[in-house]
Design goal:
With about 200 residues, the chain is α+β, with helices and mostly antiparallel strands. Helix content is about 30%, strand content about 25%.
Length: about 200
């Protein structure tokens, strides 16, 4: 399966391109994981090319098996036509005929505070229900540790309602929030700043 998703550009906000990870992304992937905030919130760390290749192999295997669909998120660099890596979003735990799956995401350090995670998550969420709703997908869950406030804000912006709290469980030292969004819910329209009208993690 080869899927490319896009978000529309608006005034002052560049559109995003979401596509499966490729070998050419290794340098930017390594750079993204140099950020200590990334290393705090992610379980798989990338410290060099060998780690990066192993990380990519996990993503490719997920696409091949259909149970983990991970998208690299890019935005254009000025008017050059080039793209730079700004994040990652993933659809996890897909099963044929299964009613539930999970989403995850992270944003590169230089792209935070601009609604990148919310816009990318919203686009992938819409696509997931369109692509897999006919196979029984009804609910997407989003989990994060309670002190990851940025991830909690992204969940709220994208219509993932807080449904409960999970007890701490290794390797996570603190409780976690469980958010959920349902296929039957009204689609969220995310504005330029990633904030729905009227109104982060990997």
């Amino acid at each position: 399966m080869s899927v490319v998703l896009r978000t529309a550009a608006s005034e002052g906000v560049a559109g995003l391109v979401l596509r499966p990870w490729a070998e050419r992304d290794i340098p930017e992937l390594i750079e993204a994981y140099r950020d200590p905030v990334m290393r705090r919130w992610t379980r798989l760390h990338v410290t060099g090319e060998q780690d990066a290749r192993r990380w990519l192999e996990v993503q490719w295997a997920g696409w091949e098996g259909g149970e983990r669909l991970s998208f690299a998120v890019f935005e254009p660099v000025g008017g050059s036509g080039e793209l730079r890596l700004v994040g990652n979003v993933a659809l996890k735990g897909l099963a044929s005929g299964g009613s539930r799956a999970e989403v995850g995401y992270w944003t590169a350090a230089g792209a935070r505070g601009r609604g990148v995670a919310a816009r990318a998550l919203e686009r992938m969420t819409t696509w997931a229900f369109e692509a897999f709703g006919g196979d029984g997908l009804e609910c997407l869950r989003l989990l994060h540790q309670v002190d990851n406030l940025a991830s909690c804000r992204v969940a709220g912006k994208c219509g993932y309602a807080l449904e409960g709290v999970l007890p701490a469980h290794p390797p996570f030292p603190l409780e976690g929030h469980v958010h959920a969004r349902y296929a039957a819910s009204v689609p969220t329209s995310v504005g330029p700043a990633g904030v729905p009208p009227g109104g982060e993690a990997g």
